Amino acid sequence: MDPDLFLTIGIVLAVLSLPSLLSAWTDGRAPRMGAVMLIVAGALVVAALTQKPGGYGWGDVPRVMLQVLGRYIG
Prior knowledge:
By secondary structure, the chain is mainly α. It is built from three helices and no strands. It has one domain. Helix 1 packs across helix 3. The chain starts with a helix and ends with a helix.
């Protein structure tokens, strides 16, 4: 698959896991779903970084995410 897609999905999952983690923490529950989402997000980001020749720079991330969004939505 496309490493750009892996990176985009990984970043989106990481952002979406934060409310679940915070909610579980404030309620005193174990953050199971948030932790699973964060682990999957980390695995996707690592897979993207290892599959892309030359890797990604910090400045590349917004451009890559917009390209993936444009490719699959527009």
